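Researcher: We're teaching a course module on how sequence relates to structure. For the next exercise, students receive a sequence and then see the predicted structure as tokens, so they can try to spot secondary structure elements on their own. Here is the exercise chain.
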Amino acid sequence: MNNLLYLNNDSIILELNNSVDKNSTMKMIAFKHFNNDMSLLDKYLEDNNYYINSDAYRGNLINPKSQLEFTF
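Model: And here is the predicted structure for the students to work with:
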């Protein structure tokens, strides 16, 4: 009757899930755990079925048209 699935907490995936800037976090994780090899990190994430939606974290901010200036 117990249909619970227990998952191991993976520190790399937890760190990616908790990050805001995915690109810089991936570079940091590659440096810390994979001897700065991004292809090994990509393979590790692919093996663990972890995919990043790159459209959600573009970080495109709206640039202001001009600064409001008041004449007195």
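Model: If you want an answer key for the exercise: The chain is about 40% helix and 0% strand. The radius of gyration is 20 Å.
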